[in-house]
């Protein structure tokens, strides 16, 4: 039995690692596509309006970099979706009715849309009218972001499950309100926060590449115009990131208090909770303000969630585990009554899983909401792993985000004064900001995904219950295969991108 438990633990760890590996590599390619598509569309709009061939040449240059990135992003994204079936089959069964819907819409509507118009965008120059080509470029950019919408809706549902009902007959969660899933506050905020952060990344990328040209006294007009457009675009994106980041803090405090506590490494809950800048340096009451917009608000700490805090109405983790086990046992009793043909008992228990009934409402509030805790063995399992990683990732993300705002404003001031090509320091800083913006982007996902562990679906399904029952050795083998494949793809992409940047825009 211990051997089986140890192997299951290894399967969970390796499956987590494989999914994280795939997601990290996938997100190296996606955000540039989301933002660069709109920058390209803005540039082509200038071409159509002015007829200036400079803008066509500039658009084509950035379009080549977009295309390289787009192709590899699609490849890694497909593998990521397949892993739900191969490594997380219990998860797929438990919530496939809900989770599969936005992913299906993404494939049918958004992906086909961008795939169709991207062909016109790349190969339709001089074959279709200027306005039709421009429309194709805009639709490609919109389609890429619509793809992100549906994927982020699915991800947000895992953080805050809504619009569903548990069916005891099938032991699955089923969608009852599609609009609640789509327009949940977490889904909308997550979409805008994520895509606008991608706009910031794309803007920094364009500014950095353009700075490289200015440092080498090449393509100076293209570089200056690109920096101006990207700086305005990035600054608008950064303002949206700050605004949606405030909304994220409120939602995390409400729906995922353990994530917020680990982001701040807040051991003891308190009113007037301070915001930790770095260990030992705090802003008094700022965490209460960010989480609840109230300096006197009580912010839950890690120990509150582990040990419980009756004064704040917080159950201990052990009590949640007991209530989750009761919910699982109730489901087992329903199945047993069905099996023995005791329809009266089965009907009576089924009402407990129907929140439309008074008994079901009570059972849901007191027990079923903790269903996932029933699969955990100890209170310590409710803690996310690598708390220092979550803490520092949040600070890296925010700190670099502030720098990017400074960079955008600095670039716009230099461009306004017509001294952009004369200042080497900001150009060097802009160039080195390219790797920094990717680090910031990855740090955001570390906070979001590592911070919500051990849950695949918040409070309803932990990773230990979601994983496929595979041999750990098989998951290890595929992990290393994917690691080698993705690394090769990344090296190839960087090599091709660098070659194209050194080559510069083409006159054809």
UniProtKB/TrEMBL annotation:
Pfam families, per the entry: Cyt_bd_oxida_I
Keywords of this entry: Cell inner membrane, Cell membrane, Electron transport, Heme, Iron, Membrane, Metal-binding, Transmembrane, Transmembrane helix, Transport
Keyword Metal-binding (UniProt): yes
Cellular-component GO terms for this entry: cytochrome complex; plasma membrane
InterPro entries registered for this protein in UniProt: Cyt-d_ubiquinol_oxidase_su_1 (IPR002585)
Segments traversing the membrane: 24-42, 62-80, 100-123, 135-158, 191-215, 227-245, 389-413, 425-448, 477-498
Membrane topology of this protein: Multi-pass membrane protein
Locations listed in the record: Cell inner membrane
Principal subcellular localisation of the protein: membrane
GO molecular function: electron transfer activity; heme binding; metal ion binding; oxidoreductase activity, acting on diphenols and related substances as donors, oxygen as acceptor
Coiled-coil segments on the chain, per record: none
One GO term (biological process): aerobic electron transport chain
Similarity comment: Belongs to the cytochrome ubiquinol oxidase subunit 1 family.
Protein name in UniProt: Cytochrome ubiquinol oxidase subunit I
């Amino acid at each position: 039995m211990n051997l089986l438990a140890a192997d299951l633990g290894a399967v969970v760890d390796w499956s987590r690692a494989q999914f994280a590996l795939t997601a990290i590599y996938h997100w190296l390619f996606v955000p540039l596509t989301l933002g660069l598509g709109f920058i390209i569309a803005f540039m082509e709009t200038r071409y159509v309006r002015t007829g200036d061939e400079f803008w066509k040449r500039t658009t084509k240059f950035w379009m080549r970099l977009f295309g390289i990135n787009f192709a590899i992003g699609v490849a890694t994204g497909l593998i990521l979706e397949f892993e739900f079936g191969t490594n997380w089959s219990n998860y797929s069964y438990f919530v496939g009715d809900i989770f599969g819907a936005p992913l299906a819409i993404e494939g049918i509507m958004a992906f086909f849309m961008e795939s169709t118009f991207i062909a016109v965008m790349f190969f339709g120059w001089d074959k279709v009218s200027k306005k039709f080509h421009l429309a194709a470029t805009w639709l490609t950019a919109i389609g890429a972001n619509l793809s992100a919408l549906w994927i982020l809706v699915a991800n947000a549902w895992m953080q805050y499950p809504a619009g569903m009902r548990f069916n005891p007959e099938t032991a699955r969660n089923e969608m009852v309100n599609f609009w609640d899933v789509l327009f949940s506050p977490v889904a909308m905020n997550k979409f805008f926060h994520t895509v606008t952060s991608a706009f910031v990344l794309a803007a920094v990328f364009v500014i950095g590449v353009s700075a490289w040209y200015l440092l080498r006294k090449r393509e100076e007009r293209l570089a200056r115009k690109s920096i101006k457009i990207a700086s305005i675009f990035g600054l608008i994106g950064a303002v949206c990131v700050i605004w949606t980041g405030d909304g994220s803090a409120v939602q995390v405090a409400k729906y995922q208090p353990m994530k917020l506590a680990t982001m701040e490494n807040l051991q003891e809950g308190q009113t007037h909770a301070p915001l930790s800048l770095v260990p030992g340096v705090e802003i008094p009451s700022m965490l209460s303000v960010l989480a609840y917009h109230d300096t006197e608000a009580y912010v839950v700490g890690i120990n509150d969630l582990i040990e419980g805090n009756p004064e704040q109405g917080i159950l201990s983790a052990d009590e949640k585990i007991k209530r989750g086990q009761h919910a699982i046992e109730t489901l087992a009793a329903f199945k047993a009554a069905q099996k023995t043909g005791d329809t009266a008992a089965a009907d009576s228990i089924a009402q407990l899983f129907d929140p439309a009934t008074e008994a079901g409402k009570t059972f849901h509030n007191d027990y079923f909401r903790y269903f996932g805790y029933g699969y955990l063995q100890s209170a310590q399992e409710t803690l996310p792993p690598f708390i220092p990683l979550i803490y520092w990732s949040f600070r890296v993300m925010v700190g670099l985000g502030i720098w990017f705002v400074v960079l955008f404003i600095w670039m716009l001031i230099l461009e306004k004064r017509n001294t952009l090509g004369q200042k080497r320091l900001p150009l060097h800083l802009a160039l080195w900001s390219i790797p920094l913006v990717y680090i910031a982007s990855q740090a955001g996902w570390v906070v979001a995904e590592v911070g919500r562990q051990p849950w695949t679906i918040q409070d309803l399904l932990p990773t230990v219950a979601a994983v496929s029952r595979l041999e750990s050795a098989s998951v290890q083998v595929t992990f290393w295969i994917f690691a080698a494949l993705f690394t090769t793809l990344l090296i190839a992409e960087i090599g091709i991108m660098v070659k194209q940047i050194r080559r510069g825009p083409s006159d054809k």
